[in-house]
Structures are given as structure tokens and as C-alpha cells.
Design a protein that fits this description.
- By secondary structure, the chain is of the alpha+beta class.
- The chain has a domain of 76 residues: Beta Barrel (Elongation Factor Tu (Ef-tu), domain 3).
- It has 8 helices and 20 strands.
- A 6-stranded mixed sheet has the order 11-12-13-10-4-14. Strands 15-18-17-16-19-20 form a 6-stranded antiparallel β-barrel. Strands 6-7-8-5-9 form a 5-stranded antiparallel sheet, with helices on one face.
- Strand 7 and strand 8 form a beta hairpin.
- Helix 2 crosses helix 7.
- The longest helix is centred in the first third of the chain and has 10 residues.
- The protein is globular and about 60 Å long.
- GO terms for molecular function: aminomethyltransferase activity; methyltransferase activity; transaminase activity.
- It comes from Actinoplanes xinjiangensis.
- This is aminomethyltransferase.
- It catalyses: N(6)-[(R)-S(8)-aminomethyldihydrolipoyl]-L-lysyl-[protein] + (6S)-5,6,7,8-tetrahydrofolate = N(6)-[(R)-dihydrolipoyl]-L-lysyl-[protein] + (6R)-5,10-methylene-5,6,7,8-tetrahydrofolate + NH4(+).
Length: 350
């Protein structure tokens, strides 16, 4: 197992550790439900040092990323970010990414931990003919998420959502971004490994509460955010997941363009709420309520701490995703009634 720069801090705090994508990560420090509510009402503190950080530099950096990724990165202003995807030539998703433009010829590509090596390899494979350098960064990433995140990090109201800039926090030089994966306002702090413990202690001293990966999953599901390996896979295109808006089909050429331009998904991602107390889980079958035939599959499901009832996302036939549609979910042999709802399940106020 690989360890982040904060591993000994998590041990000192008594975190329950778990293996994730080859990393030893904190699953929870106490109650994952309490940590979930902390992010919804206060400020949660997350170690995301397992995420892949890849720097792309050079005079062709923007043109290269336009070619390799589905979005149009050349139009992103310096100090701004874009949510995008790396797709296979078949149109299937290899990873979803956040890409920050740090300078005209310098970009930071942030990949999911499980896919970081794949993203790095595929970027290298697609770089032929472009004057670029692709570099893996060994650096920490700390997130502060929740309605009190601004008071924890300090007054940065002029840093807009999906913005990034150099800052000095707790006496250390960092990159401060305002993105997130919880449905709440929040910040990501990119810092040197040697500075991570001091920045963590500073954020904790300002009121942020340590939170683990367990609540991060319930938070992102409530917010209707996809998780690679569940809602996004090599078998799904961005259009299957309802994320066709991130694909710049009018670009002259990019990896996967031919497949994506002809994509006609016969199944689409939908939200489900069940009437019982048992929660659907990934892999559970979705059934036609009249015939009992299997018509879809749950990709993620949890009891929602915020809403107080089970929620799930599932792939269903395109004609079954209208909100109010009734279906059944086979939960370990028991057929539970469910209803299709619009995503996200939860949207923050303000």
C-alpha cells in the first residue's frame, strides 16, 4: 500500500484505514454519518493525496489537450478549470478529469486515483506530433468542503467556482482551487508533501473536521456526481451518463470523436428513490414492475443521511427515465418499489 504524506496524521487521529486503488486511506474517523452531516452543515477536511496530478506543459499544451480530451481546453482562461473526460477511441470513458490552466502553456490534469497510471499512459500515447512535456507530480492535495469552508480557508470570495490561483496559507505556498465533489462550496489546496501536515493542522484549527472516504461517497451520490467504475466505465460514453455537454463535438478532431459523433445510447443514467428502508446497491437489477423482466442495473446506492431515505443511480432504457416512472429493484431477492427522480437528489442553497 502507498501512503499519503498525511498517513501518520490519520493514524494519530484513530482513523479506520482502508485500501483504495493501492493507497491506504482513511475510511472514517468516527461516524461516517456524522462526518457527512459535518460537510453539509459545517466544514469537512479530506486528504486527497491519492489523486493523480499530471502537469502538461509546452507550446502545444492547449492544442494537445484539445486533441486528447473531449473538451475544448484551449478556451479555458488562465486561472480557470474545466471538467472533462479522457475517452477511448470507442467513445468509452477512461476517466473523468478536472483540468486547470495555470499559464498559457501549463495545465494541471487531476485524475482519479484508480486511473492515474492509465491517464498518464494514454496522454503519452496521444502526444505524438505535439511539443509538450507530461510530468507526474508527487504532491499533496487537501480539500475543505462545506458551507463553512470560506471561514476555514479565509476570505477568498473573489476566487470563483472552478478557479485556481497561487496563495500563501499557513505560511506555505500553495495552489488554491475552488471546486469539489460533495455538492457543497469548498476548496482544494495543492501543496508540497512536506507542508501537508502544517496545512492540515491549520485548517483543523480553523474549524474543519477530519472526514473519510465513506462520507465522501454518500455526499457525491446525493449531489448526483458520477464515480468512475460505477456510473462511468469503458462501456459507457459521456452521453450514457447524461454528460454529453462536456463533449465538444464541433472540434475538428479528438480521440474518440468518430464514435461519439454517432453515439445513440439506448440506456441512460437516472436517479431512483425507494419506498422501503433497504438501500439498492451497485449491481442490483432494476425490473419492470409489470413483467418482472430485468430492464436496468443500479450503479450506486446508499441510505441518504441528508434526505432520510435510500437513493440510487441506475442505467435504464431511454424510455424509462422520466421522473415518476415506477420500477422495482431486486435487493438481495426482495423486490422493492422505486421511483425515477431527476438528478441531483440534493442541491445546496445559495
Amino acid at each position: 500500500m502507498r501512503h499519503t504524506a498525511l498517513h501518520h496524521v490519520h493514524q494519530r487521529l484513530g482513523a479506520t484505514m482502508t485500501g483504495f486503488a493501492g493507497w491506504s486511506m482513511p475510511l472514517r474517523y468516527g461516524s461516517d454519518i456524522a462526518e457527512h452531516h459535518t460537510v453539509r452543515t459545517g466544514a469537512g477536511l479530506f486528504d486527497l493525496g491519492h489523486m493523480g496530478q499530471i502537469e502538461v506543459t509546452g507550446q502545444d499544451a492547449a492544442a494537445f489537450l484539445d486533441h486528447a480530451l473531449v473538451g475544448r481546453l484551449s478556451t479555458v482562461a488562465v486561472g480557470r478549470a474545466k471538467y472533462t473526460m479522457l475517452c477511448h477511441t470507442t467513445g468509452g470513458v477512461l476517466d473523468d478529469l478536472v483540468v486547470y490552466r495555470l499559464a498559457e502553456d501549463r495545465f494541471l490534469v487531476v485524475a482519479n486515483a484508480a486511473n492515474a497510471a492509465v491517464v498518464r499512459a494514454m496522454l503519452g500515447e496521444h502526444s505524438g506530433g505535439y511539443t509538450v512535456a507530461i510530468t507526474d507530480l508527487d504532491r499533496s492535495l487537501i480539500a475543505v468542503q462545506g458551507p463553512q469552508a470560506v471561514s476555514v480557508v479565509g476570505a477568498h470570495p473573489d476566487l470563483r467556482y472552478y478557479g485556481i490561483r497561487p496563495e500563501r496559507l499557513a505560511g506555505h505556498d500553495v495552489l488554491l482551487a475552488r471546486t469539489g465533489y460533495t455538492g457543497e462550496d469548498g476548496f482544494e489546496i495543492y501543496c508540497a508533501n512536506a507542508d501537508a501536515e502544517a496545512i492540515w493542522a491549520w485548517a483543523s484549527g480553523n474549524g474543519a473536521v477530519a472526514c473519510g472516504l465513506a462520507c465522501r461517497d454518500t455526499l457525491r451520490l446525493e449531489a448526483g456526481m458520477p464515480l468512475y467504475g460505477h456510473e462511468l466505465t469503458l462501456r459507457t460514453t459521456p452521453f450514457h451518463a447524461g454528460l454529453g455537454r462536456v463533449v465538444a463535438l464541433d472540434k475538428p478532431d479528438f480521440v474518440g470523436a468518430a464514435a461519439l459523433r454517432t453515439a445513440r445510447p439506448d440506456r441512460l443514467l437516472a436517479g431512483l428513490v425507494t419506498k422501503g428502508r433497504r438501500s439498492p446497491r451497485a449491481g442490483h437489477a432494476v425490473l419492470d414492475p409489470d413483467t418482472g423482466d430485468r430492464i436496468g442495473e443500479v450503479t450506486s446506492g446508499v441510505p441518504s443521511p441528508t434526505l432520510g431515505h435510500p437513493i440510487a443511480m441506475a442505467y435504464l432504457p431511454a424510455d424509462r427515465i422520466e421522473p415518476g416512472t415506477r420500477v422495482l429493484v431486486d435487493i438481495r431477492g426482495s423486490r422493492e418499489e422505486a421511483e425515477v427522480v431527476a438528478l441531483p437528489f440534493y442541491r445546496r442553497q445559495g
